[in-house]
Specification:
This protein is α+β, with helices and mostly antiparallel strands and about 160 residues long. It contains five helices and six strands; from the N terminus they run H-H-H-E-E-E-E-H-E-E-H. It has two domains: about 80 residues, PH-domain like; about 60 residues. InterPro entries: YdbS-like_PH.
Length: about 160
């Protein structure tokens, strides 16, 4: 992102791969919980316990996977955008509870770049912007774009980059 891009007033979106990374995380968590529910059903059937808790949990985990693995990532991708200007950072998020945040660059205290194992698998990273009041996250950018965004925000906010 160069200065001409900074002066562009358009909002930017996350990388589409963020939907896949979120779905994989959800699949792993709900898959484990589904296996536990199936394990309970097997033990309950063998010991003649009541089966309804296992069936209820199994149904809940299936609905949870559909919501958190398919619907919510698509909504988060569609309704999250951000813009970096010389004097402020603007973040728009939410589809039911809408949040519009503007942070003056003078309030930014720290800018961090994070990339867990699943984000790295998809070549993505997360930029965290720390102020005295809150920590804002832009999760789901390509690694190179996230590094550039971190440097640009750090430069505009006059925050030292300890990595360089």
């Amino acid at each position: 992102m160069d200065n001409t891009e900074l002066n562009n007033r358009e909002l930017r979106r996350l990388h589409p791969k963020v939907k896949q990374a979120t779905a994989l995380t959800t699949l792993m968590v709900n898959g484990l919980l589904t296996l536990l529910a199936i394990g309970y059903l097997i033990v309950a059937w063998a010991r003649d316990w009541t089966l309804w808790p296992g069936w209820a949990a199994l149904g809940l985990f299936i609905v949870s996977f559909m919501w958190f693995g398919w619907a919510l990532p698509a909504l988060q991708y569609r309704y999250f955008s951000f813009r970096v200007a010389e004097d402020e950072l603007e973040i728009h998020s939410g589809w039911l509870w809408i949040t519009d945040t503007i942070v003056p660059m003078t309030r930014v205290q720290q800018v961090e770049l994070e990339s867990g194992p699943l984000l790295r698998k998809y070549g993505l990273a997360k930029v965290s912007i720390v102020t005295a009041a809150a920590t804002l996250e832009i999760a789901g950018l390509e690694r190179e774009e996230a590094e550039q965004l971190k440097r640009n925000i750090g430069h505009l906010a006059k925050v030292e980059d300890r990595d360089e």
